[in-house]
């Protein structure tokens, strides 16, 4: 990608986090899903680490080799003209140097944002908050070196990992980590696994920063999230899972009934051909 275009995309993506509206951010897992989402006039898209890994034959959780993840992100950014933020899990490396190198590579293939989580993939445990903050700092320094001011979405996994022995302890640790990550250079906080509207409202009141939440059936509707001060909603793995579920359902119907009527679609082969030809 031409750097001047990427810098403009990064600026545009950052402006979408001004909290005047909620950024609805769907997650793509390959170039085709990215093109379909772009064609629906979303302002930006994210990648989903789980969806990308599954599409390549790997489990989620940094099981996919970094080179394959990077190539997939590159195919997605090349397929669309809108900003793309990349889910790079914990950074795919043991050291801050690894994180910095990988963030630089993600920027080189066209991304203008990243997700960086504070769970260790090998153990599923939360990182020490100082270590997690250092990794965010390394990501920010890599972005500054590249000249592209990416949006760093710091995932706080205290709710996903059920940190602590009480709601109060979990909330306090979430605030502590979020403030540390923001000080280290994060732009947005992502308390994945938190869907409770009352707690989200309290979190938004305590943090003077954009907050990302994951789409979930129990999540309050978009208009309520806007009133709470939530900045963006991403779909994480849900669209990829829905697509695979539709595949499973149709294949089972085919296998069990021997009938073909359920294979009728409103999206035609010709529609996708035209879409994929769009430069």
Give the secondary structure arrangement, pairings included.
Blueprint (H helix, E strand, L loop, with lengths): L2 H13 L7 E3 L1 E2 L2 H9 L5 E3 L1 H7 L10 H14 L4 E4 L8 H13 L4 E5 L11 H18 L4 E5 L11 H18 L3 E3 L6 H10 L5 E3 L7 H7 L3 E3 L3 H20 L11 H9 L2
Parallel strand pairs: 1-9, 2-3, 3-4, 4-5, 5-6, 6-7, 8-9
Keywords:
279 residues, alpha/beta, TIM Barrel, 6-stranded parallel beta sheet, 3-stranded parallel beta sheet, 11 helices, 9 strands
Describe the structure.
- The two termini are 13 Å apart.
- Helix content is 49%, strand content 11%.
- The relative contact order is 0.13.
- The chain has eleven helices and nine strands.
- With 279 residues, it is an alpha/beta fold.
Compact overview of the structure:
The chain is α/β, with parallel strands linked by helices and 279 residues long. Helices cover 49% and strands 11% of the residues. Helix 9 links the parallel strand 8 and strand 9.
Topology pattern, helix = H, strand = E: HEEHEHHEHEHEHEHEHEHH
Largest sheet: 6 strands, parallel
At the fold tier of CATH, the topology name is TIM Barrel
Mean pLDDT: 97
Amino-to-carboxy terminus distance: 13 Å
Structural class based on helices, strands and sheet pairing:
alpha/beta
Q: Could you tell me the radius of gyration in angstroms?
A: 19 Å
Low-confidence parts, pLDDT < 50 over ≥5 residues? none
Shape: globular
Total number of distinct structural domains? 1
Specify the helix fraction band. Answer: 40-55%
Annotated CATH architecture: Alpha-Beta Barrel
